[in-house]
Write a structure and sequence with these properties.
The protein is an alpha/beta fold. The protein has 2 domains: 7-157, Glycogen Phosphorylase B (Rossmann fold, 3-Layer(aba) Sandwich); 170-348, Rossmann fold (3-Layer(aba) Sandwich). Helices cover 34% and strands 16% of the residues. Helix 9 links the parallel strand 7 (188-192) and strand 8. Helix 8 (169-181) crosses helix 11 (251-260) and helix 9 runs parallel beside helix 14. The longest helix has 13 residues, at 169-181.
């Protein structure tokens, strides 16, 4: 790698992460660490259009650019035009947290003296001036800090889990109005039953029973998800008093609602990482995936539910559309009472009350 760069000499940096929402949420860790080690650094960020609103919540980021890799910026010509518009900011350094060919092409089109990427990124040898390896034995919240190696920083000593979030008055007012109109006070639980991957879903029937049990404990439930999750969320909300907000909130509104919740219950999906950003306790249900891949929640009050007795686990790092052996036992073997028991322990604990 050669000599270490001096992070104090980096004035203007561009971070790129265009993966899933959960990955973008975890990239907050690098944003915070860069500012910690250089209080004067200016940061811009390239991410997907849907994740742009998430990054905009962090006041440490100056400009957020939405890179529409699936549509408007899919063609090489459009990618080049996008890169040229971003390049006008004259960056000292680019850090890419994504390894795809498209991201490497994007980086190659943006001039910068230093370009930091992963060894296993597409064409990394030709694109990046400095390459790093992620320690796969670590949680992703530490792995995302691997670029700090270039600056000679021992990121193992960095205190993860401290984030800046800035909710506007207008956003708070709108979200509070949603809660007030539905007669929901701060003692509510957020339920996130959806996932991009079918095998990562615990199941609508299980979540429906869980909501009913939580309501018997005296807590309201707010069900969240995207438009694609609406069918599952509608089933879960049926015959309950839960507020179903699937497809009805922006990312910023969802983040604020999560910040006000007593607890979040989710599959191994983005809401787990949203909860960590807001320091809201979370119960994460793992099926085909596993915490050993590095995407476990990091809060001291967080809990993980999984079946560790199955020889077929872990199945895949992201899960899949179908169970390879046709049983989905990793999820079917987790029953509502398993989750309810942990929920009761959490909500009834005097150490668990949110202030």
């Amino acid at each position: 790698m050669g000599e270490f760069l001096n992070i104090r000499n980096i004035n203007n940096i561009l971070i790129i992460q265009t993966a899933f929402l959960g990955d973008v949420a975890i990239s907050f860790e690098l944003i915070e660490a860069l500012r910690f080690y250089n209080p004067n650094i200016l940061m811009d960020f390239i991410t997907t259009p849907i994740a742009s609103d998430l990054i905009k919540l962090n006041p440490l980021v100056n400009n957020v650019f939405g890179f529409d890799k699936r549509k408007s910026h899919r063609k090489i010509k459009d990618l080049s035009i996008f890169a040229k518009s971003v390049a006008s900011n004259n960056y000292d350094c680019i850090i890419s947290l994504h390894k795809s060919l498209r991201t490497s092409l994007l980086v190659s089109n943006i001039p910068s003296k230093y370009k930091i990427g992963y060894f296993d990124a597409a064409f990394s040898k030709f694109i990046y001036t400095h390459r790093v390896k992620a320690n796969l034995s670590l949680n992703e919240h530490y792995r995302v800090l691997a670029p700090l190696n270039v600056f000679g920083i021992n990121y193992y000593e960095y205190q993860i889990g401290n984030y800046h979030l800035n909710f506007s008055k207008e956003l708070k007012s709108k979200a509070e109005q949603i809660l007030q109109e539905n007669k929901i006070e701060n003692n509510f639980v957020v339920i996130a039953p959806g996932s991009v991957w079918n095998t990562k879903k615990w199941g609508e029937k299980n979540y429906a029973e869980l909501v009913k049990q939580i309501e018997l404990m005296g807590y309201m439930c707010v069900i969240v998800g995207s438009d694609d999750d609406s069918e599952d969320c509608n089933f879960v909300a049926k015959d309950t008093n839960a507020l179903n907000l699937a497809g009805k909130t922006s990312i910023e509104e969802l983040m604020y609602l999560i910040s006000k919740a007593r607890l979040v219950i989710s599959n191994d999906s983005a809401p787990v990482h949203f909860a960590n950003l807001t320091s809201t306790p979370v119960i994460a249900i793992f099926g085909p995936t596993s915490p050993i891949f590095g995407f476990a929640p990091i809060g001291l009050d967080d809990a993980i539910i999984e079946n560790n007795t199955l020889k077929c686990r872990p199945c895949q790092i992201h899960g899949g559309k179908k169970c390879p052996i046709g049983t989905l036992e990793c999820m079917e073997s987790i029953i509502p009472s398993d989750v309810v028991r942990i929920v009761k322990n959490k909500l009834n604990s005097k150490f668990y009350a949110r202030i």
